[in-house]
Amino acid sequence: MIIVLKQNATPEQINHICNKVKELGLTPQVSRGIEKTIIGVIGQEDKLRVQPLEAFPGVERVMSVMKPYKLASRDFKSEDTIFVMDNGVKVGGKQVVIMGGPCTVENKESLLRIAKEVKKSGATFLRGGAFKPRSSPYSFQGLGEEGLKYLREVADEVGLLVVTEVMDTRAVELVSKYADMLQIGARNMQNFDLLKEIGRTKKPTLLKRGLSATIKELLLSAEYLLSNGNFKVMLCERGIRTFETATRNTLDINAIPVLKEETHLPVLVDPSHGTGNYNYVTAVARAAVAAGADGIMVEVHDNPEEAASDGEQSLVPKRFDAMVKELRAIAHVLGREV
Ligand code: PEP
Ligand code: MN
């Protein structure tokens, strides 16, 4: 249920409506936009009878939300969500954010070398996994807390933000201590306990689309984060499973305009996992920015042959730099910035 308020609704009237909503055992979420203030009501919609609510002073309209995701929808918030990181970097809006770094944090020295390169090219986030979701239990699982420390130290030294994956509810507190943005990996998109836990932290969060998840399911997972109080959420298209085997995944370019229409949340694209092949990464990254992505996340390694994971889809720094230059040119055409 969405309650649209009149332009001249007073704070007293808004409070009165919120109190009524709470009395019914529902949760009101007030969103003050430039044009309109609205109240999103979370909980069983049928507890609210539409007719009486419209009689409340200050109420313009009451809308039943047909979409299963409410807070993530454009109906709830028509303007694009922009959130500001602690160092002032903006996510969403005019800016196209660039995230780069290795698939896995391997050691401090190589992380530092790669971080310096991606920073020089224009990245604002350093990516890298310390807890890795590997298909095989025998593959390298990541350095754990040691990897988180390297990420923090290197990012601080170079002047970057840290985005890194958290796979387990028990690790949320630990990863939050080191990361600026928590990443929920594709394999955990529907780990609902993890979503709730991360929702409660209110930390900036990157939610990746599941391997076989529909856009609706992605938005419902985002709804878990939002309904638990976390509105600093960025969605990520990272390729889905299709019948095609020429590439690791099929990057769903369509998802970008669809998501931009359905939700106010910023949309990131990961062409590394989307293609699985360094040769295709730049082309798909260009397409993503042209299609309206709010950012790009790319795996970078200065010695891909020896990478602990995903070397085949990692760009060497020189290629990453060339890619960012092209993305910048495309962004400018669209009135945006890299
Ligand atoms: C990653 O970005 O490190 C990763 C594992 O990606 P995904 O969850 O999309 O497979
Ligand atoms: Mn990877």
Can you give a write-up of this model?
The protein has 338 residues and is an alpha/beta fold. The chain is 35% helix and 17% strand. The chain is built from eleven helices and 14 strands. The longest helix has 17 residues, at 317-333. The protein starts with a strand and ends in a 5-residue tail after the last helix. The structure holds phosphoenolpyruvate and manganese (II) ion. The site of manganese (II) ion has 5 residues, from loops.
Brief overview:
It holds the Pfam family DAHP_snth_FXD. This protein has 338 residues and is an alpha/beta fold.
**CATH topology title of the largest domain:** TIM Barrel
Low-confidence stretches: none
Name the helix and strand elements from N-terminus to C-terminus, one letter apiece: EHEEHEEEEHEHEHEHEHEHEHHEH
Compute the gyration radius: what is it?
21 Å
CATH architecture of the largest domain: Alpha-Beta Barrel
N-to-C terminal Cα separation, in Å? 37 Å
Query: What structural class results from the helix and strand content?
Result: alpha/beta
Q: Give a short account of the largest sheet.
A: 8 strands, parallel, barrel
